Amino acid sequence: MRKNGLLLASVALAMLLLVGGAALAIEKRGGSGDDTLVGTDGADHLDGKAGDDTIEGLGGKDHYLVGGFGDDNVRGGAGEDTIVGFGFAEGWVNDDEGADTLSGGGDTDHLQGGLGPDVISGGEGGDFISDGLGDHGSPENSVDTIDGGRGDDRIFSMTYKPAQDVIGCGGGLDRVHADRGDEVADDCERVRYRMSHR
């Protein structure tokens, strides 16, 4: 079984040259080992499958599948990305710029949004969700929507921005740290507010 590999060419690799000399868009799929998938500035499709995978999309409107049995680390990069986690392992997802969608899987996920109006769903398991580290100074309409899902989640949404985030927790005993103006659902058991700098 392959334990370590740099997959610059995968089992199914499709390269599409865009008109006008723009960046290539690629499709990469990992295997059962610990893979490293690196995208381009195009609209990439990256699928880590099983193993402890590292996935980096760079720019472009990318789509990621993070799943199987393994602890994955994903960085979305710039662009409007969709990151979907599934399976039964711990995952780390870090997002940069763009209006992105981040979804956790069946175990403990670490989901971190970035600049732009993100939609973050924790899924099963006790998750760590943050949208605050990259949103300081975001535009007024940069509203993040967070759903913790099942499990005992910890949600940090202290962004000091004018926009009011929407936060739901789902099942489990959840803890939320939010700005005073955020809309926090009643299913969030422990909520601590902090005054926003406006």
TrEMBL record:
Q: Does the keyword Transmembrane apply?
A: no
GO molecular function annotations of the record: alkaline phosphatase activity; calcium ion binding
User: What is the first-listed, main subcellular location in coarse terms?
Assistant: secreted
What EC identifiers does the entry list?
3.1.3.1
Q: Where is the signal peptide?
A: 1-25
Higher taxonomy: Bacteria, Bacillati, Actinomycetota, Rubrobacteria, Rubrobacterales
Keyword Hydrolase part of the UniProt annotation: yes
InterPro entries, alphabetized? Hemolysin-typ_Ca-bd_CS, Hemolysn_Ca-bd, RTX_toxin/Mannuronan_C5-epim, Serralysin-like_metalloprot_C
Q: Specify the protein name.
A: Alkaline phosphatase
Question: What is the native source organism of this protein?
Answer: uncultured Rubrobacteraceae bacterium
Q: Which keywords has UniProt assigned to this entry?
A: Hydrolase, Secreted, Signal
Q: GO cellular component terms?
A: extracellular region
Where in or outside the cell is it found? Secreted
Which enzyme type, at the first EC level?
hydrolase
Pfam families referenced in this protein's UniProt entry, alphabetically: HemolysinCabind
